[in-house]
Amino acid sequence: MVTVSEKQTPQQTPEHTRRRHFSTGFDRFSGLYLGALFIIVFGLWVPSQFLTTSTLHSVAAQQAVTGMIGLAVLIPLAAGLYDLSVGATANVSGILTIVLMNNSHWAVAPAIFAGIAVAVAIGLTNAFIVVKLGVNSFIATLGMGSILGALEVIISSNSQPIPPSSTAWNNLTQTTVGGFQIVVLYLVILAIVLWWLTAHTPVGRYLYAIGGNTEAARLSGVRINRYTTFALVMSATIAGFAGVMFSSLNGPSLDFGSTLLLPAFAAAFLGSTQLIPGRFNVWGTLLAIYVLAIGVEGLQLVSGASWLSDMFNGVALIVAVALSIQRSPSAHWQRVKNWFRRGSASGGDPEAGVPLEELSAGAAAAGTHHSGTGPH
Predict the structure, then answer these.
(1) What is the rounded average pLDDT of the residues 69-85?
(2) What is the residue-wise DSSP string for 79-138?
(3) What pTM does this model have?
C-alpha cells in the first residue's frame, strides 16, 4: 500500500536539478555598460581633458536643464500623450521672467512665479484643446509650440534681452553644493518627487494604465480627462521651471528650447529601455540623458565637431524608439493573450476584465493607444 505522503507529484523537483542562470542584466542596465564603455574609451583617448573634475561638473550642470525637460515629456508619455510644446514653453517662461526683471523692475521671486504661472496656463490650454476639443496631442502641442514662438517674439520685441544684473538671479543656479552647481540638486529633487508620484501613488498607476489602454482604463473607472489634464499641466509646469533655470544658468536665449526638445525625447525613449524595460521611468530617463551627454562630450573633445550633438541625439532617438517597439507587443497580440489568459470571464471583451494593476504594469513604452488624445 502506498500512502499519500509517498506519492510523487510532477511538481516536485529535486533541489539538485534546479539551475541558476547567470544574467548580466544587459536588458535593463545596458545604459550603465555603455556609459562605462564611454568613460574607459575617452578616458584612455584624451585623459587630460576627459578625466577631470571640471568636465564632470560641467556635464552635470549643463545637462540638468535637459534632464528637467526630459522629465517634463515623460509624464505625458506615460499617459500615451505627446507634448511637443515643452521647448517653446521653457523659452517663453525664461524670456518673460527676464523681461519682467529688466523692463518692469520686478523682484526675482515674483518674476519667476509669473514665468511659471504662464507655463501652467499653457498646460491648461493644451489640456483644453486635447480633452475638450478632442485634438490629437501631437497636433495640439505642435501647433501650440508655433504659437508660443510668436508670443516669444512679442514679449522680447524680437531682440535678445540683456542678462539681469541681480545677484540673487545668478545665485539661483550658480551657487555650488559639494562642487556641483545647485541646479543639479534641483534636478535630483525634482526626479525624486516625480519618481514617488509615478511609482508609489495611484496617480502614477492611473497614468500608466491610460497609456497602456485608454478604453480598458476607462472601464476600470479611471477618470481619463482628469489625468490627461494633469499630465499636460504638469509637463508644462516643469518645462516652465526648466526655462527659468536655463536662463539663470546660461543667460537669455531666444531659441534654446528647440535645442532641448530632441535630447529630451531621445532620453525618455531610451530611458524606457532601462531599469524598467517597456515603461517610461524617471531614473531610466536620467540615466539615458547622462550616458548620451558623456558620449557627446567625449566625441567633441576628440574631434571638436559642433554637429556631433545633433547627430548623436538623433541616432539615439531612432534606436531608442526601435528598441521600445521591439520590446512592446502589438495591441492585437496583447488582446489575444489576455483572451486566452482570462477566458470569457469579462463577457467576451478580452480587455474589459483586466485589473487596473495589470494595465499599469503592462503599459508599453512605444505601443500605447490613446484614442483621440494620444499617439496613434
Answers:
(1) 96
(2) TT---TTHHHHHHHHHHHHHHHHHTS---HHHHHHHHHHHHHHHHHHHHIIIIIS---HH
(3) 0.81
